[in-house]
Amino acid sequence: MRLAVLDIGSRSVHLKIADLVPGGPPEPVATLKQSVHLAEATDRHGVISQDAIRRLVGAVTESEAVVAAHQVDDLVPLATSAVRDAANRNTVLAAIEDATGVRVRFFSGEEEARLTFLAARGWHGWSAGQMLLLDIGGGSMELACGSRTEPAVALSLPLGAGRLTRHHLPDEAPVHKRDVARLRKYVRSVLMEATAELRAQPVPVSAIATSKTFTQLARLTGAPKPTAGAPGRSTLARSDLRKWVPRLAARSDAERARLTGISASRAHQSLAGAIVAETAMELLDVRQVTICPWALREGVLLDRLAALGTPPLPAVAVPRARNHTLHRLHTVS
Fold first, then answer.
1. Cis ω for the linkage preceding 174 (within 30 of 0)
2. Residue-wise burial string across 213-248, b where 16 or more C-beta atoms lie within 10 A, e elsewhere
3. 273 φ, ψ to 5°?
């Protein structure tokens, strides 16, 4: 089976096409990533702007052309918390379907946590043992824990780096110590209330983190840059991360973007990402996390791979090819 996963996130629309063959990992065929910046275009009332909706529709249109060109058997178009939690999400979904015929669906936050845990387990293998997963997105934070393929506990909390930045930090830098302390206190209170069952689980053998937020924070604190085809296993230590919180708070977005690992597009939310990562690691008594390059998209692929022997989920109609120039397409040979 050739499966395409279309992941609509808070910053980008990311298409991943892979061949699924029982007994092996998903074999990458092609990827396409397009920036849409939904998080920045969402106001404090949760409304996504019309300009952002147009960008999103354009990105889905280009993605469906790639899907058709690669003769995909099935397409899974999914939206995470940026659209799922938007006040005008029905308008967003209708605009996509009217323009492209693609009916985007949602996973619950807990299902996202489960699938991301599955991806991390697939990447690290059974040697990870009892495994704790942390995943910070733009709108939400997913956590999961367990010793098997399926987590014993899976949680989704409104602690995404973009959401926290919009609602709890000032727009201008430097950010005062009291604002940092106030955000840390808020994050800790949410985690304390929501993670009692998670903290009651056996002590994890491995703590795994996935997402661009964790990857960039690891680079910021000294982890080597992954190389193509051999990403290695970089780590992020809580003690190193804690030192960087005040340094990020003291810098403007432009200054943060000049730091190792921090991209210009994520500089504005890097402080909130660091605060929630450091606070979660402290509360869960995690000294160090290992960075995993697989996340939700790979979890969807692995979940479908495991189900190849059973009736498939309802297929989404694959659109006919259109005349698009796929100048951002990366095909894996």
1. yes
2. bbbbbbbbbebeebeeeeeeebbbbbebbbebbeeb
3. -60, -45
Sign of CA dihedral 193, 196, 198, 204: positive
Query: b vs e for 133-149, b when ≥16 Cβ sit within 10 Å of the residue's Cβ?
Result: bbbbbbbbbbbbbbbee
Q: Report d(CA 88, CA 82) in Å as an integer.
A: 11
Q: State the residue for tokens 């692995």.
A: 302
* Alpha carbon 31 to its chain's center: 16
Contact 297, 33 (CB under 8 A): no
At 315, list the tokens.
């297929």
Give 25-79 pLDDT, tens digit per residue. Answer: 899 999 999 999 998 899 888 899 999 999 999 999 999 999 999 999 999 999 9
Torsion over CA: 176, 178, 181, 183 (sign):
negative
Which pTM value belongs to this model? Answer: 0.89
Amino acid at 19: D
Sign of the torsion formed by the C-alpha atoms of 261, 267, 269 and 271 = positive
pLDDT by residue (tens digit) across 250-308? 999 999 999 999 999 999 999 999 999 999 999 999 999 999 999 999 999 999 998 87
One-letter amino acid at 173 equals: A
Residue 289 backbone dihedrals phi, psi, to 5 degrees: -115, 150
25: amino acid identity, one letter:
P
Q: Are 78 and 300 in contact (CB under 8 A)?
A: yes
Q: Tokens 């704790």 appear where?
A: 132
